[in-house]
Amino acid sequence: MKFSVSGRAAAVCAAASALSAVMLLTNGATAGAVSAPTPSAVAAPDISVANVKAHLAQLQSIATANGGNRAHGSAGYKASLDYVKAKLDAAGFTTTVQQFTSSGRTGYNLIADWPGGDANRVLMAGSHLDSVSAGPGINDNGSGSAAILETALAVSRAGYQPAKHLRFAWWGAEELGMVGSRSYVNGLSSTNRSKISGYLNFDMIGSPNPGYFVYDDDPTIQKTFQDYFTGLGVSTEPETEGDGRSDHAPFKNAGVPVGGLFSGADYIKTAAQASKWGGTSGRAFDACYHSSCDKASNINDTALDRNGDAIAYAVWKLSS
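Structure (tokenized):
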């Protein structure tokens, strides 16, 4: 979401600039006489929901061409990873494919580092890329995977140079018990774990009967997301349905501050929730959760758009 500067603020800035110019002329531009203005924080870009949905369409096509799913160990999963990796490589990220074994099959994590930033302060954003074997997994979790991919591409397009080092991750075998993310965290030295200032997790952010849930694990990260939704006039609730059930858990257990967003799975939307968020009470947030109907049509565009913009807002805010 882009915010415009009010006319009054613009006038104040113009007056301040004029005053600074007069002072420079009056004082002969003496070195150190006038301090340079502090640059304002770079605003996060608006994340195009059309671009996110284009990635989802590609993931749907991959699933359709590979037995209807993108599950761990399948050709559909590997093709999904190859699609994401190609986009990131072309955008200037340094990508690494990590391999692991689970249930007798080879799995893969994809890690993408944006050059620059303080390597001793790393902000990570991640999502699981695998589906269950029952279906293509477009909301669970194509939605989170596509949104962080588009956020990463926005970083490249903007030539963003944050103070912290940015790292994005797409995890394998989450549906088997966060196998990929746990493998990654367990493979880090204690020194490298301590360099991660925060991990942001996005698992199901486009549910068709959506809620707006914010992880309440770390106060600073939680407030960052809450502030964004407050600016939209959208109420949020603490996320409880997915506690310990997604890829933030291994990071949290290792002492890394975590946060994230969630739009609901098979819990039932209450009348109070429907009153403030819309949708249908008495029905699941995602009736196609872990089912064959979790297809490209199983997405609420408004939730996907809001959550995608919230991801970018948090990445820019927390990495500056």
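Strands lie at 94-102, 105-114, 118-128, 164-171, 196-202, 213-214, 237-238, 258-262. The first strand starts at residue 94 and ends at 102.
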